Amino acid sequence: QVQLVESGGGLVQPGGSLRLSCAASERIFRGTYMAWHRQAPGKERDYVASMSSGGTTNYADSVKGRITISRDNAKNTVYLQMNNLKPEDTAVYYCYGRGVWGQGTQVTVSS
To answer: Cα–Cα distance between 102 and 26 in angstroms, integer?
Structure first.
């Protein structure tokens, strides 16, 4: 049973933007903390950003000022707006909520 579905990844040039989406089942999304993590090739999965059900946000230092997390409670969806992307942002991005991980979406930043 698929409960978190990410989309929006792709290939973008340095300095470009992407918006990732994570559609969640209501059982996962309602009243819970949602987060994005990423895993670059050969590296561990790292925290990127999170948002509480009340709207409190937190970000990894490496993405502050460039990435914004948001949620649409009517659509059970959490977003990750990524601007001024750098090659080091290249990774598979995973959505997380209530102990469940999505399948990931690939983001590649390259000229």
So the answer is: 14
